[in-house]
Amino acid sequence: MSDLEMAAAQAYLKELRLPAFARMLPETLREAEAQGRPFLEVLRVLLEGELSQRQINQGRRRVREARFPYTKGLEEFDFTANPNLKKPQILSLARGEYLAKRQNVILLGNSGTGKTHLAIALGREACRQGHRVRFYTASGLVNELLAAQAELSLTKLEKRWLKYELVIVDELGYIPFSKQGAELLFQFLSLRYERGSLLITTNLDFDRWIEVFGDAQMTTALLDRLTHRAVILVTNGESYRFRESMRVKESEAAG
């Protein structure tokens, strides 16, 4: 293929929105000619390259849409520091079967034991698999609900939530909510029941959730829905942040 023909082919491919195909074309054709590879094999390689790049780009868009507060991955998580968490179970969750089943995941434990790290890491894995994900802190979600109610746009917001295969609600129980805020949060969490997965991190045992919602009947009804077929992981142990702080202090004292 002449340089002119190559340029024309690449222009057509870009017009067809096949940028990875266009980028790979010159080198792939040179290798194919040198190795005598058949046309269909060359075509397959180029199409696989285009598909792979699209999946990577889609995953990046999903991660941006999710609005994670920072980047955390499973490869960074220190499982040896928290024997309560079994690595095979976390890696199984990372494969995303719970999303297909619309199951919930609840990470329950003391502050600083890696709950948010795991929530973000599992959320990013879901994004890479093509799922739509949204990350909230519990307080941020309640504030958004209250604002939507004030603007009479709550129904519109609820419809948007249902487009996400996974909604992460971080730090449930760290601060109390007003009666109105608690009722709206109950409404949101109930709306997700068997229609999409929730991943919740909390520092409160279930018998203390009434401190968040303020009503025993409402709390019981919500827990029935949330824990039905849910994966519940207890992360209790020494705080990662406390342990790291002590390590730094010991290092400074030794130095």
TrEMBL record:
**A GO molecular-function descriptor:** ATP binding
One Pfam entry name: IstB_IS21
- What is one GO biological process annotated to this record? DNA replication
The answer to keyword Cytoplasm applying to this record is no
Q: Which domain of life is it from?
A: Bacteria
Question: Keyword set for this entry?
Answer: ATP-binding, Nucleotide-binding
- Gene3D superfamilies, sorted: P-loop containing nucleotide triphosphate hydrolases
- Domain (AAA+ ATPase) spans 101-233
Task: State if ATP-binding is listed as a keyword.
Answer: yes
Which NCBIfam families does the entry mention?
IS21_help_AAA
Entry's family note: Belongs to the IS21/IS1162 putative ATP-binding protein family.
**Per its record, how is this protein called by name?**
ATPase AAA
Taxonomic placement: Bacteria, Bacillati, Bacillota, Limnochordia, Limnochordales
